[in-house]
Amino acid sequence: MPLSDHYQLTGSGSPIVFVHGSYATTSTWKKMIEQLSARHTCIAIKLPGHCGTPDPQDFDAPTIETELGLIEDVVRSLTDEPIHLVGHSYGGVVALSQALKGSLPIHELTLFEPVATWVLETMGDADMQAQVDAFLQRYRQDAANQVPYACGQVIDFWGGGNEFEALPAFVKDMMAPLTTNNLRHWDLCTQIRHTRDELAQLEIPTRIVCGTRSNEVAHAIANHLDSELPISSRYDIEDASHAMVNSHPEDCLFILQDPVEVY
Question: What's 71's DSSP letter?
């Protein structure tokens, strides 16, 4: 598949690179890109196995380098300018990993509820880690037993409520075949390892965003990152949950353009 099939390119100006989450597509960013493309080159990455792209080839031994290598290839083919890197959910995990790798010039980082559960272990947050472990045990078992719409458990876990039931049937049917890819994402979220020192050395202005209705694990991850990253601003979007980039695009857009205070 040509590299050009792994991204959508819109607009002109300083580059913003968007990374969508698991069970999602580049349409995650549609409303925001419509407004940003007048003054920015908007590059929406299509993660492997999503948006019609081939599945990754590393299911037996998953590595985040699969995603990072793709982003590096796309960005280097399109620009040599520093980028604003934006990620939502698992895309936030990828974006944070990209920034920590240091292989691309990134001048700003925005993370909408990054599900970087590895942060809980790094910070020794046993209570939140226990919640993740209990959820994953049930979810993995149900997925292995091919329980219908096991994918909905992930949506409800991060959303902090019964959100999957309200989705249109065609959206549920689109999500269900992505369960194997989502399980791979969970493997990476739990296996990635970075130290507090590495986080403390990430001197990229970073916005960290949560919805007030999202679960406490998402908030714990955001709070830990905010406490460890040297240049960060923490935001909450009122009455939003994990799907904030779709449900509250104007709030997300405002935050995306809000300068991070550097002390």
Answer: H
CA atoms 48, 50, 54, 58: torsion sign: positive
E-strand stretches of 11-149: 14-19, 40-45, 83-88, 106-112
207 φ/ψ angles, rounded to the nearest 5 degrees: -100, 135
Residue 155 tokens read as 């949506």
Question: Above 70 in pLDDT, residue 182?
Answer: yes
Convert 5-27 to b/e letters by CB count within 10 Å (16 or more is b): ebbbebbeeebbbbbbbbbbbbe
pLDDT for 1 equals 84
Which helix (H) or strand (E) element contains residue 10?
strand 7-10
Using DSSP, state whether 123 is helix, strand or coil: coil
pLDDT digits (tens, 9 = 90+) for 194-241: 999 999 999 999 999 999 999 999 999 999 999 999 999 999 999 999
* pLDDT(34) > 90: yes
- pTM of the predicted protein model: 0.97
Give the separation between CA 64 and CA 53, rounded to whole angstroms. Answer: 17
Q: Which helix (H) or strand (E) holds 30?
A: helix 30-36
